Amino acid sequence: MVTGNGVYMLARRKFHLLLPLSAGLCACAGSDGPYPSLATRAFESAAAPVASAPAEPIRPLADAAALRALVARAAEADNGFTREAALAEPLVRRASGQPVESDTRAAALVAMADLAARRGAASAVLAELDRLVAESATTFAPAEDIETARGTVEALVSGQNATMARLWEELGQ
Predict the structure, then answer these.
(1) Could you read off the pLDDT of 93-131 as tens digits, one per residue?
(2) Measured in whole angstroms, how far is the alpha carbon of residue 173 from the centre of its chain?
(3) How many whole angstroms separate alpha carbon 133 and alpha carbon 144?
(4) Which residues of 73-108 are buried (b: 16+ CB within 10 A; e: fewer)?
(5) What domains are defined for the chain?
């Protein structure tokens, strides 16, 4: 049962909630000035702008000569790697099973370090080609020639990695 006092308290509570809301709505009211006109404005009836000439095609980031030079650098590094691998293989065979402190094992480790340096030269070319691929992706430049050169260099580096892995396994590392 709701008493008269309860109805009064309920109505008073609602009044206290509505008072700040109505004050907020009054603050949103604008000035007494005229409303903006709904008539067509000048820019709405103007002719559409004429399309400009198509943009120039995007040039490749590296020309064919630069890509050939990068592949030649990688091939030169691979030739050096092959020469070093031929020198390292007998050293690794002799060092296999030798104690860690032996001179033959030390010589094999030095040869492996030389191989890693030769591999680094080819890997640097691969990194340069990776940079060109990434840059062409962000600038929408053609990348077919770069991808071809990168595939060639990547095959060289993969072969070097396989040789290094085989020699390290033979060395027992």
Answers:
(1) 999 888 888 899 999 999 999 999 999 999 999 999 999
(2) 34
(3) 9
(4) bbeebbebbeebbeebbebbeebeeeeeeeebbeeb
(5) 64-171 (1.10.132)
